[in-house]
Amino acid sequence: MKIPLLNKLRRTGTQIKLERTHYGIKFYLPEALSEDELLKLLVRIPPSAYKLPEEQGVALDFSGRECSRRLILHMLNSIVWEKGIRVVSWLSGSEESRKLFKAAGLSVTEPPLNLSDAKKPESPETSHEHNHIPALKIVYGSMRSGHKVDTEGDVLVWGHMNPGAEIVAGGSVIVAGKLLGVVHAGGYGRTDVFVWAGQFETPQVRIANKLCFADPKSTTCWRKSVLITLEDGTPVIRENKFLQPRKLEQEGTNI
After folding, report:
1. What pTM did the predictor assign?
2. Where are the domains of the chain?
3. What stretch of H or E contains 88?
4. What is the rounded CA–CA span in Å between residue 164 and residue 114?
5. Which fold has domain 5-103?
6. Cα–chain-centroid distance for residue 222?
7. What CATH number does the domain located at 124-247 have?
8. Long-range Cβ contacts of 106-115 (<8 Å, 24+ apart)
9. pLDDT tens sequence across 133-181
């Protein structure tokens, strides 16, 4: 389904980034704005921009913003109920914000890809015969702020991934240098994926439908080489030689 107003909204300088997802639309809400300024921007978005198929909805990503109860109530009243928007996820890197969302019964994780509705993956042999194996995406050099890679396959970055850069990969992600941006491996439903970083310095990593956060003050693997995998549904990080696994806490707590 085409959403013609998305490009128009970007051109108006609203500073709200919109991204098409398998469950609808994700709104990346700027942290730099005050709560009143953010509400004004959201109210200005025309209702037609929210029109989605009945089974789809909107995810609100507040990044690291600490949301007040006042902001949440105003958003429910002026945005959700007033405009009739179906918000499927309330995402934030702030522990306090996630606590408020959870206390209100709001979902703090993105809906997983429903593989029963999607095209079932073929066997490796069949996929190879029909050239359906997703290609490896290689980025030569560092990724700057605003640089985004979205692919169904694996991603290899021969350089650093700076703050503001983003990778959404159906497969695994390898960053040879510093990982400071946002990485989502297994972004289209796969769980047999991993994230490897030459130097781990990012507050947020996503593996499949698991959203995990790291605090540089308490994370022992900060600025070290790490391998992050999903084991029995739980994110696990291995430092340096990857011999000592320890679980990552998820959905609102620090690593």
Report:
1. 0.48
2. 5-103, 124-247
3. strand 87-91
4. 29
5. Transcription Regulator spoIIAA (3.30.750)
6. 20
7. 2.160.20.70
8. 108/211, 108/251, 108/252, 109/209, 109/210, 109/211, 109/251, 110/21, 110/23, 110/26, 110/59, 110/209, 110/211, 111/22, 111/23, 111/209, 112/189, 112/208, 112/209, 113/22, 113/188, 113/189, 114/22, 115/189
9. 677 899 999 999 889 998 889 999 999 999 989 999 999 999 999 999 9
